Amino acid sequence: MKPFVTGHEDLVHDLAYDFYGRHVATCSSDQHIKVFRLDRETNEWQLSDSWKAHDSSVVSLDWASPEYGRIIASVSYDKLIRLWEEEPDAPECSGRRWTKLCTLNDATGPLFSVKFAPGHLGLKLGALGNDGTLRIYEALEPSDLRSWSLTTEVPVLGSSPASHLQSDFCLTWCPSRFLRETLLVCALDQALIYQKDKNDKMYVAAKLEGHEGLIRSVSWASSIGRWYQLIATGSKDGKVRIFKVTETSKGNLGGRIDEDSMSVDQDSDSSESNSKDSGLNVELISESGDHKGEVWSVSWNLTGTILSSAGDDGKVRLWKSSYSNEFKCMSVISAQQRS
């Protein structure tokens, strides 16, 4: 493990690698975003640019899929989503290399998480904050990246949003091309899978059960070579959980899952039920408390074969499936220097 100095003047809340892993962006309570590039000769991270992005703590950021250009989205306690585009001809470390494309200001409270959708779904992003509402935006004209439309608003927490820390909210998109538009939203100790039906409306397709504390992190694995999906969560209850998600041919046992009660409503309108012709089955296949404390981050590798987790024990643990399809810890990385 090789640390590098970010130069931030306050707590670093989030970091994100670009698609190729050659650039990393960080955001902080110092209201700044910094982008670093990997020097191939020295294998060191070099500062590419730094700029003030918001008027409050910047808590989450993400890179767009590379086919849409070099674009970063960021969210902050100031209730704003901002999108930034790189100007490759601008000098590095000038503060002008990244220019603001637009500001989206529909949220009524601090925003905590932002994620771009996979490239095959188009240029769109989802954002979530403590007003308990999932908002999805889309750039309807790829030639005009300054114009974004709010296409979906889903009340995740119902009618009673409350003030909570940013680590109580997170979201991730399903990367598979073979499932209709799907994303997982975690709010407090709930983990809900939303899918878009044939009428382009989001509904709760499944729920990840078993969490006994706040969900700190979630990651949806790429499904290369698999007929099923894998989702990992890290929780305040100290557990790393891995869920197996499979698609069924009939939607939700012939009824609709209600967002508030999570119960199946057999009396749902038949036309609405028929628009959901694929249901999701969720199975908990692995649960581990090896960190012996809160789990703060989980992340799959690019191929979805190795899961990394980080927790209060100050260690990164790598998980891989055995021949018997059991996930076991294959390696432990410690940041502590050996004497």
Automatic annotation (TrEMBL):
Residues 254-280 are annotated as: Disordered. It is a peripheral membrane protein. GO terms for cellular component: nuclear pore outer ring; Seh1-associated complex. Coiled coil: none annotated. InterPro entries: Sec13/Seh1_fam, WD40/YVTN_repeat-like_dom_sf, WD40_repeat_dom_sf, WD40_rpt. Its main location: membrane. Residues 260-270 have a biased composition (Acidic residues). Signal peptide: none annotated. SMART domains: WD40. Keywords: mRNA transport, Nuclear pore complex, Nucleus, Protein transport, Repeat, Translocation, Transport, WD repeat. GO terms for biological process: cellular response to amino acid starvation; mRNA transport; positive regulation of TORC1 signaling; protein transport. SUPFAM superfamilies: WD40 repeat-like (SSF50978). WD repeats lie at residues 51-85, 208-245, 288-320. It is found in: Endomembrane system; Nucleus, Nuclear pore complex. One of its GO terms (molecular function) is structural molecule activity. It comes from the Eukaryota. Belongs to the WD repeat SEC13 family. This is LALA0S13e03158g1_1. It comes from Lachancea lanzarotensis.
